[in-house]
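Following up on my earlier thread - several people asked me to post the actual chain instead of describing it. Fair enough. Here it is, all 303 residues.
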Amino acid sequence: MEAVTAALSVGLDIGATKTLGLVLDPDGAILAEVREPTEPGAEGIVRSAARVFEALRVATGQPLEGTVGVGIPGLVEVERGAVKHAVNLGVNGDWLPLRDLLAERLGVPVVLENDVNAATLGAAALDDATDLVYVSIGTGLAAGLMLDGRLRRGEHGAAGEIGHVPVDPQGVVCQCGQRGCLETIASGSALAAAWPSGGVPPAQALFAAARSGDPAAIAARDRFSAGVASAIRVLSLAVDPASIVLGGGVAQLGDPLRMSVAQALLAQASSSPFLASLDLAGRLRVIPSDYPVAAVGAAYLGR
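Reply from S.P.:
Thanks for posting it. Predicted structure:
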């Protein structure tokens, strides 16, 4: 990781439902944290970010003059500071020059990054790690890669799109147009389809039912965990990271998720001495539920 400066750092995590902003001190401690609903569309995103930024300034009582890091879903072209295909935010069609729009409204420099990549930086900051895979299990399934201290974005910004690796030729059609992708098995949306739960988050409902001994819940949980384990196996065989970190909305489950995925990894390695020797289960950890990983990573972007 690069050396930090002595200034305060601001990070914004812009999501479909909320914009979470925070201020880090030079040692990486969170000084202030603000959450506001996200308005859709270009102007709505900018207004939401401006409200959060102003609230952070008031909360800290200090001028926030450094570069603001912003994480946002969608395809991000970092050099241009533009975003595309952030469908849940109402950003469709042509590239949106969000970096420049935000910089003009906030009055400070802005750096833009994909939200999973920003979260990867936040995950690395937890242990000052330089080599890891961050697996984000939210509505979809994606990964961030930090290799030898550098983010790997890929030529087209598609590095880590593990959710769109097809694994089941007989599976359902994925939103990407392929059939049987990992995302159709190992994601929050897959859990919601497999275990409708009313007002309770599907992951919590499913894991609770599995703990109570419900055979159908146990089967659904194990299929989901095997899908996450398959994603980890593919990523790890490709880049062999020092650590594997689970994050995203489903990771709010905490250690029960880690244990279930670790058991699936051990089961997959049971017939392969080679795979067993890699100890993928032993490299696995989960983001603490109270750690705003994407916003923290966005703040580090500004440094």
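The chain has a mean pLDDT of 94. That should answer part of your original question.
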